[in-house]
Amino acid sequence: IKVFKQFCERQNINYKLIDEPEIVIRKGNIYVVMSDYSLVKLIKSVSELGYKLDKDIGIVLLYEPTYTNLLSANFSSFSYDNEEVANKILEVIKNKKQTSYVLQPKIMIQ
Predict the structure, then answer these.
(1) Torsion-angle region of residue 96: left (phi > 0), alpha (psi -120 to 50) or beta?
(2) C-alpha R_g of the chain
(3) Three-state DSSP state, 79
(4) Which helix (H) or strand (E) holds 106?
(5) Helix, strand or coil, per DSSP, at residue 31
(6) Is the pTM of this model over 0.70?
(7) Phi, psi (5° rounding) for residue 109?
(8) How many CA atoms lie within 13 A of 75 on its CB side?
(9) Exposed e or buried b for every residue in 8-33, given b needs 16+ CB within 10 A?
(10) How do residues 2-52 score in pLDDT, each as one tens digit?
(11) Distance CA 66, CA 41 (A)
């Protein structure tokens, strides 16, 4: 979330972080989703309002779920190489010291 905020502020993008119970769906908005639960809830809300994914609202996933190909809409997503993440975690454990890494995401724009 911190990186998302920094990116939006650097790019002068208006944003609002919303807790799921308060979510209000508006046409023309893009929603950044961080979990399967949030994605399902958002898709259900969009459907109940009669909106169309890709046309009325956009969704960007901060992960790459395997089942999105079952849905009729396209989703842009950011994901990381799990092997690279695991290797970095093992390196930190092995070296027994705190450090930070910058991992390059795999970005899929649809």
Answers:
(1) left
(2) 17
(3) strand
(4) strand 106-108
(5) strand
(6) no
(7) -105, 125
(8) 26
(9) eeeeeeeeeeeeeeeeeeeeeeebbb
(10) 777 787 788 888 877 766 556 778 898 888 887 888 888 888 889 999 998
(11) 17
Nearest of 48, 47, 49 to residue 72 by alpha carbon: 47
Cα(first)–Cα(last) distance of the chain, in Å? 22
**Tens digit of pLDDT for each residue in 69-105?**
666 666 777 777 767 777 777 777 678 777 777 777 7
103 three-class SS: coil
Q: 15 vs 4, 7, 44, 95, 106, CA distance in Å?
A: 9, 10, 22, 39, 23
Residue written as token pair 């919303």: 18
| Residue 50 to residue 6: CA distance in whole angstroms | 33
The Cα–Cα gap between 65 and 68 comes to 6
The type of residue at 11 is Q
- DSSP-based three-state secondary structure for 99: coil
E-only strand ranges, 4-95: 30-33, 58-61, 76-79
Task: List the structure tokens of 15.
Answer: 């944003």
